[in-house]
Predict the structure.
Amino acid sequence: MRTDTPSIVLLGAGKMGFALAQGWRARDLAGAHTTLLDPVPAREVAAWCADNGVRLNPPDATIEPPDALVLAIKPQSLDEAAPRIAALAGPRTLTISILAGKSVADLAARAPHARAIVRAMPNTPAAIGRGVTGAFASPGVEARQHALAEALLSAVGGVVWLDDESLIDAVTAVSGSGPAYVFLLAECMAEAGRAAGLPPGVAMALARATVEGAGELMRQSPQTSPAHLRANVTSPGGTTAAALAVLMADDGLQPLMTRAIAAAARRGRELAG
């Protein structure tokens, strides 16, 4: 296997699949050895493939089992795509799935020759190269394939590896769904600012910039805990302390977030069957 220029087949070129492909190209992992398969590719995807020498929907007979098969289709399409997956997932193919709710066992049942399967859950900031992915590797994944999976997934952000596949549901609840929680926080801050008398446009501008800046501050302070960063903003007896007394009360943000993430994880298990 050529870990520097692997042959890749991407099945599904929706928003997340296309984000992955763009990340691979930025790292010189995608090109003439890359194939995108999508029944109705967006015009942007087709133009990108043409510009970058990536094969788009060639005849199946011309596609051999690749070094890496990346599944980015909708989870409900798995059974329909199963014959194609089985044909492409050879015994030496690394199969990476980002299908929510579909386990390694689900994939192995539909690809009987697959030996190496990685189940991954990226999130939407992958579209700008700032995502984070939780991933689990099946026992059949060799060291070189693990390195290839790391290279392909890290092209759109950080990768956190799990030892237990069952934790994928918690990853989905925290980081997979997490961007929506942050966007809701910005909405709520803006609405609270409006209620405090700010013009709506001013309140939203302040809320957006604050969330963006706080996130960037955390990114640039990797050795500093969020709790310490919070303490740095909080003067005893000041305005921030007054607000945090509400947010950190027994019925405040922490128990609310705990219930929200538990609900998301529970729904993930339900969807998995």
